Amino acid sequence: MRRPTRSLVLAQVVLSAFLCGLIWVVQGVLYPLFTHVGPAEFPAYHAAEMSRITWIVAPAMLAELGLALTTLALHRHEPLAWATGALVGLLWLSTAFVQVPLHQYLAQRGADAAVISHLIDSNWIRTAGWTVRLALLLVWLRRLLRAPA
After folding, report:
1. Is residue 62 included in any domain, yes or no?
2. Total structural domains in the chain?
3. pTM to 2 decimals?
4. Is residue 129 part of a domain?
5. Helices (H), the chain
6. Which residues of 96-128 are buried (b: 16+ CB within 10 A; e: fewer)?
7. 10-residue stretch averages of pLDDT, the chain, 149 residues long
């Protein structure tokens, strides 16, 4: 078994830390603010938030996916590669099949308290996923740094 390179795992730690911090801001600040926007202002507010956040999230998620797939390809016998890679899969699935459709609904129909509540509640999947992924990557990096080079 080839050992994962420290730089590959470190790159994932850095990217995962960024995404983890970002999702906590989304969970604790951005999504709850949707409930404080009036119905008349909501469509413009939501559209602006979505267009701005997409330019931050999309490249980072694509880079994370690329790093996870590279790690799996190079180190397919490493359990932490599979665990952290599976979390990336979960994050993409949740984004594509839960958060994106809820945002599309809000974009088409405007403010809806029940949908916003569902968006906030279901986003805990991604918040927990990125938090656990970061923790596992930190464990992996610590293990690599303690191993002889």
Report:
1. yes
2. 1
3. 0.94
4. yes
5. 6-25, 31-33, 42-74, 79-94, 100-109, 113-122, 124-146
6. eebbeebbeebeeeebbeebbeebbeebebbee
7. 78 98 98 97 97 97 98 94 98 98 98 98 98 98 88
